[in-house]
Amino acid sequence: MNLIMFLQLTQGMIHFLTSPVLIFPNMLTEFSRIITILGPILNSFWIGELPVIALLSVIRIFLFTKIHSSNKIGNPVKIILFLIVLWVLFLILAGCYTRNMIMTPPTWSYDFSVPYAQLFDTLEIGLSFPCLLISYLSYLTICYLIYGTQSIQTSAKSRKNELAILLQFTFIIIYTSFVVIMWHPILIPMMSFIDMNKTRNQAIMNGLWIFDSYVNPIMMLIFNKSIRDDVFIMLKSGGKKNISPVTVTAFSHGPN
To answer: What sign has the CA pseudo-torsion 21, 113, 95, 197?
Structure first.
């Protein structure tokens, strides 16, 4: 399982484990220590997901254009991934120490009464949008290379695969950007009418965050025929029949 799927799966599991609190608020008191640990992990994995997405998008350009082989870009990628992992671990440790993430049903939020919570919130904003922009520009670049130049020879099947990936990626980027904006409506003046102090809006925000963990696999199922075929085969055979192995990237499956 690749890193991006691991980050999303962990977020989904934490959302699932803490969901009973929505029905039984007293659990916040009974399991306060556990929740104060799960909160920073959940938020840190969400933050760490975005630079990983951006990195994998840039790598795809290098591999697609064959400017560098996968072996040559391997070491720099490992270093960057190592730095991202260190950053995520730092966020987790800092969050657990300061307890800067609290669950106030129906959602999670920063506890701005603790030290440095505002700083971490600002860092999250400063990291989110550049990563999303880099990610999408990378895939637009690939589309330009496919359809706008004659220097790279691509088959019709390859162009179709890349277009499907772009559509998949476009939806994910728009959705993720919307979640970030909803989380920080003050960033966009025209969104200032959203009052995140209302319980209804908080519930919607939490639902959007939960669904974010499932957007990637759902989009892969919609836009990737080979994965759909394998899933249908598995369902028809009751999970007993072997299916062809697949290689899943951050947002796609298929030949480069």
So the answer is: positive
